[in-house]
Amino acid sequence: MPRWLIELFTWWNGQTMGTRFFTWRKGERVGEDQFGNVYYRSPDPARTAGGFPERRWVIYKGYAESTSIPPGWHAWMHHRAANPPTASGYTPREWEQPHRANPTGSPAAYRPKGSIVGAANRPKVTGDYEAWTP
After folding, report:
1. Positions of the region Disordered (predicted)?
2. How many structural domains compose the chain?
């Protein structure tokens, strides 16, 4: 399927035509993370929202999944950090684990013992359980 057709009809595959046009006109590329997501900002005061001095957005590589944004970029996107990780020299602390996207709804999701979609069977009920009867 042609890329322009995907951008015209879907919002979950990267960017739409409107986002592409807005990024081309007003966007200033700030950086890219290790997953290939590209970050932009628009310091135009006429285009701000919520009282922030600039508008910030991300163009996801592939499927638009908000949990694929690493912590440093998340802080910048939500105006918790004034400078992006590329400009501020952000390095994760030694106790931080590497970023991992949320696996909910995927085959990598956590399925506890006894879950309907889990591989194991539910354990037998012990004698300390008494069923409620009305």
Report:
1. 85-134
2. 1
